[in-house]
Amino acid sequence: MGLFGQSASEKEDVSIINRLLGILENLIKCKPRVHLVLTTNLNTKSKFQIMSVSLAANQKVAAQFGLVDQVTNASVTGSFSNQSGTSDNTAVATVSVDSNGNLIVTAVAAGTCNVTGSALAAYTDSTGAAQSVQLTTQPIPVTVTAVVTADQVNLVLTFGNPTAQ
Known about the structure:
Blueprint: H1 8-28, E1 34-41, E2 47-49, E3 53-56, E4 60-69, E5 75-76, E6 78-87, E7 93-97, E8 103-107, E9 111-124, E10 130-136, E11 140-145
Parallel strand pairs: 3-11
Antiparallel strand pairs: 1-2, 1-4, 4-5, 4-8, 6-9, 7-8, 9-10, 9-11
């Protein structure tokens, strides 16, 4: 995969693989499976699956829900409702859902915990059948560090390179 997404030949390969998977699924009559994941956008064109979170105790982070095919790891288009989230240690971090359906992890105090997200996912599988399934993400480890504050500060001047007068 290129830096800015899939090349045309990679997209064609994925399309062929998806068609073949659909044929196999029809032959063996199994339903395709998807994973619910949390993602973040680094720019307007790239989404990345969140594997872990590191925050200072005065920070929070937002994540979007996403679906990934369990066989191909390809992104699956879907919509979400009934979103929720949990933390296994609310003394370290809490979890909420904002008005846009994003999962918000808010750091509370230094320590570690695991967060999970849950949502009712609606999507169309590779056989063309509409699916509506309640899914939960795998636990995502969260590390919260203490906020470092300075007791005393000094004003510092930094000079550039000398130039001719």
